[in-house]
Specification:
Blueprint: H1 5-17, H2 23-43, H3 54-59, H4 62-73, H5 77-90, H6 95-110, H7 118-135, E1 140-142, E2 147-153, E3 156-162, E4 167-173, H8 181-192
Antiparallel strand pairs: 1-2, 2-3, 3-4
Helix pairs in contact: 1-2, 1-5, 2-4, 4-7, 5-6
């Protein structure tokens, strides 16, 4: 039986690098798996009713570029490289797939994320803003002040400010004078949030 990209390569690598005992890691794992599943459906590269050769098309697509951004957002670029290296071993007999894999591995290794140069930092902030815009279409950004505002509904919004070495997020709750119950409810939910350990 041939090796399936998602089930035999992606999932085992992700299971090794992501600690599913932490709830925030489970969300990351679910997000990445959903993206890959959607791409598998779109391009048809599964060995189960699809064609492995179509993996080459996916690897050279904008969908793959977006996947790289997601891995980078969570600091998982090395895991993506590992996935592609294992895929290269598994798909050596598929010429076009091998070429695409080699190209992407080289690109990921030579274009290191996490390098502290000013251009890379600017690009990673830009990627974060793009990710926020995709999740919150009503987001307003002020590039000059390096600040974004995300409306969360019910008089709540988040202000995100980017500094040289940190990102500050402020939650703001706007209250009507005659409705203090909103403050009580929101403060209660904030205080009940488990702290990350």
């Amino acid at each position: 039986m041939s090796v399936d990209f998602t089930r035999h390569i992606v999932n085992p690598v992700l299971s090794k690098v992501i600690d599913v005992r932490k709830s925030e890691h489970v969300k990351i794992l679910d997000e990445i798996r959903k993206i890959i599943h959607d791409c598998e459906e779109k391009y048809g590269f599964s060995i189960y009713g699809g064609d492995v050769e179509k993996l080459a098309e996916f690897l050279m697509s904008d969908d793959f570029n977006n996947l790289v951004k997601v891995f980078d957002t969570y600091g998982l670029r090395n895991a993506l490289v590992k996935i592609l290296e294992e895929a290269l071993e598994a798909y050596r007999d598929y010429v076009e797939v091998s070429k695409a894999l080699e190209s992407r591995i080289s690109m990921l290794k030579n274009n290191k994320a996490g390098s502290h140069g000013k251009n890379n930092r600017g690009r990673s902030i830009g990627e974060l803003i793009t990710l926020l815009k995709s999740k919150y279409p009503n987001m307003e950004s002020d590039p000059d002040r390096k600040e974004v505002r995300v409306e969360l509904g019910e008089g709540r919004f988040a202000k995100i400010k980017f500094y040289r070495k940190k990102i500050v997020v402020n939650m703001v709750i706007e209250l009507k004078e005659d409705d203090p119950s909103l403050l009580s409810r929101d403060l209660q939910s904030i205080l009940e949030c488990p702290s990350s350990r």
